[in-house]
Amino acid sequence: MNANPLHAHAPSVPITAARRGETIVSLRGVDKTFANGTTALSGLNLDIDTGEFVSLLGPSGCGKSTALRILAGLIDPTRGDVVWPGDAAATADHRGDIGFVFQEPTLMPWATVEDNVYMPLRLRGVSKARAQEAIDSCLALVGLDKFAKAYPRELSGGMKMRVSIARALSLRPKLLLMDEPFAALDEITRFKLNDDILRLQREFACTIVFVTHSVYESAYLSSRIVVMAARPGRIIAEIDVDAPGDRTEAFRTTPHYADLCRQTSAALHGAMGFDEHL
Amino acid sequence: MNTHSTATLTDTTTTLQTDVAPENGRDFTMLLRIGLPLVLFALVIWAWEAYVTAYNVPHYVLPAPSRIMATMIADWPVLYTSLLQTLKTTFLGLMLAILGGVGLAVLLSLSRLVEYSLYPYAVVLQVTPVVAISPLLLIYLPQETAVLTCAWLVAFFPILSNTTLGLQSVDRNLLELFDLYGSTKPKWAPAWLGRLLSRIKALWYLRAPAALPYFLAGLKIAGGLALIGAVVAEIAAGSAGAGSGLAYRIIESQFRLNIPRLFAALALLSITGVVIFLVMSGISHLLLRRWHESALKRER
After folding, report:
1. Cystine design at B280: which of A39, A43, B106, B220 (Cβ 3.0–4.6 Å)?
2. What ipTM was predicted for this assembly?
């Protein structure tokens, strides 16, 4: 399945921490070629374990978003499989287990914050009355309980993103997939949301796969950083992060964090090395 | 789910925007916006009246505003019946255009096949001038139906094209979210039925609200056009014989050189058009004021 030597993991990167739990979902030998002939992914193998915070890090065009979409079932791989080991039936529907957060908040402008969060539950046929408790607690989790009746246009970019996260949490997903969710936000808001997302993961005990192009963000958040390279999209390094679970702002100033950033940067430069012109 | 979490995460960057624009300034702007056109209108009417009186212009050439007003009152029974007739045609034409336009737009959005086969004909109907079609319609259809068909024809397309555009203007990511959360197909259903069901769901939850502003913009255009269609058809029909709408009164007054009545009928048509526009704008504002950019005031 993994015959192509290009996507063997770089041996120079030490692998320190042990995996935390059982595999929740895997990509096995996934290729993706788009209709226009672009090869987005080639022979991708990736196991996501329960409780992990996995960052997919890489230059633009390395297929990290594509990999995330394949995990979500939003697009189908050209070759290879998405395997959920917990299930006997290969065709079982996992969409209820997944929360997805896009780069943009992607809210319905005509609906209140509350109704936006209610949307996935509504589609599952849950009545508003029965969903109310879940909606309220999701909004409280992201600190927006006072804004339930507001419309998206009344909120700042960071608040909209929180609504988007609350919506993704409303079905209590086992797996939260985030596609560069904070890339369009200012740094202050981003740092704040970084802390929030770590806290949410602790409280929610969910597994997170997080696509980013920021070395610092991935180093701060992850329990494992998967570095990808472009053309074709493939994994070139995996860095297991051996750091405390409850990271705070202070972590950003530790030598360990600096070391992690350096190590990740080096791996990323390796990734760019194939494409000097990037 | 943990509800006891620290709720101290309110965004530091912004708080809710509130409407704190200075009340006085806005009131003054409103006054200007309503007052200035009225003042101008009064000036024009006054100048018209003065000109007609000063130069003794015969009323069959240019009647004075006062004479038009007097005619309007004297001929009210006739004009009122005509007004009702024209209103009825316009309103029915618009209703049918809404039904047909929205219905067809929904069909087009559900099926590519329908879109490919029908849309070109909708365009052909639109670009063919209705004045040129109305004589034919009058041959083939009873007069009242023909007039109604004309009103419908011109009002139909703006609603169809705007609604179609609106139904397609949903955020791609929102549609993907729908795919992720929404496509739960009943176990007994075949795959195609599941697809259709999820399309209908997306139509109802996503495409319809997203299309609403577009539809309302189309409605604003269509309201005025329905009146124009009714008038054009009445003029075509009026010259062919019977008919009692306002446009027919205009033709009739022209033949009889009853120019004051012509002006009175024209004024009624104008007022009708303005009222239709105001009603459509009002509906649009009511439906969009909470969320759509077009209905928002700019904060300064």
Report:
1. B220
2. 0.76
